[in-house]
From TrEMBL:
Belongs to the CobS family. Its main location: membrane. It is an enzyme of class 2 (transferase). GO terms for biological process: cobalamin biosynthetic process. It is found in: Cell membrane. GO terms for molecular function: adenosylcobinamide-GDP ribazoletransferase activity; cobalamin 5'-phosphate synthase activity. This is Adenosylcobinamide-GDP ribazoletransferase. Pfam families: CobS (PF02654). InterPro entries: CobS. The keyword DNA-binding does not apply. Joins adenosylcobinamide-GDP and alpha-ribazole to generate adenosylcobalamin (Ado-cobalamin). Also synthesizes adenosylcobalamin 5'-phosphate from adenosylcobinamide-GDP and alpha-ribazole 5'-phosphate. It catalyses: alpha-ribazole 5'-phosphate + adenosylcob(III)inamide-GDP = adenosylcob(III)alamin 5'-phosphate + GMP + H(+); alpha-ribazole + adenosylcob(III)inamide-GDP = adenosylcob(III)alamin + GMP + H(+).
Length: 245
């Protein structure tokens, strides 16, 4: 857990090479940290302030807690999607530290989608908002676990240390530890929580498929992009299902 918290957040838990090695072999630690991030970030919805302020507090708290590593992966994916060329050219763009128009656009749109998703929580109550935020965060991390467990490394790097270590057998425990995110749902919230949790793995499957077909594998950037896109879409899916049911 120290290795997972150190990888996914900016919480100063310390950690050693042994912690990192243990984290690499345990995909279930990803959604477990999702509970921590979602619980801390979602607690802002209990503040007695206006919805726009809640959204700002959620976004600021979220990225103070998690940092911008995964957002950087999202921007790199945007550049890879925008660039013309073969797999080698796209892999080169993914490794480039500079952010182009494609990356800026995808990052901006995703953050805007997150903000709108959080704003849609207005009126549903702080406890329901917290449960949806937690389910979205756990689902996003479960999507990362899916990419890591079923993917093959596109190139050497930080991501390959995780993707190359895990196998598809590691995914089932990650699913099991994610289930409390949908347990004991109050007042008919269960369908919304299930849909919210499932969005992350759905995004992970899409990213995994694109990575294998386009790049010949997946990278750390695709793991980060899965997390960011999965969270953004899950917030909207959760509220939409809650309203419809």
């Amino acid at each position: 857990m120290r290795g997972a918290i150190g990888f996914l957040t900016r919480i100063p838990v310390g950690g050693t090479e042994a912690d990192w090695a243990a984290f690499r072999r345990r995909a279930y630690s990803l959604p477990l940290v999702g509970f921590l991030i979602g619980g801390l970030a979602g607690s802002v919805f209990f503040l007695p302030v206006q919805p726009p302020t809640l959204v700002a507090a959620y976004l600021v708290g979220l990225y103070l807690l998690t940092g911008v590593t995964h957002a950087d992966g999202l921007a790199d994916l945007g550049d890879a999607l925008a660039v013309h060329g073969d797999a080698d050219r796209k892999r080169e763009v993914l490794k480039d530290s500079a952010t182009g128009v494609g990356g800026t656009l995808l990052l901006g749109v995703t953050l805007f989608v997150v903000a709108l998703g959080a704003l849609s929580f207005a009126g549903i109550g702080p406890w329901r908002a917290l449960r949806l935020v937690v389910a979205a965060e756990v689902g996003a991390k479960l999507g990362m676990a899916l990419v890591a467990c079923y993917g093959r490394p596109a190139h050497e790097g930080l991501g390959s240390q995780l993707v190359g270590e895990l196998t598809h057998r590691s995914f089932a425990p990650a699913v099991v530890v994610s289930l409390p995110a949908i347990a004991a749902a109050p007042n008919g919230l269960a369908p919304a929580l299930v849909a919210t949790l499932a969005t992350g793995p759905a995004v992970g499957l899409a990213v995994l498929t694109w990575g294998h077909r386009t790049l010949g594998g997946v990278s750390g950037d695709l793991l980060g992009a899965t997390n960011e896109i999965g969270r953004a879409l899950a917030l909207h899916v959760g509220v939409s299902v809650w309203i419809l049911t």
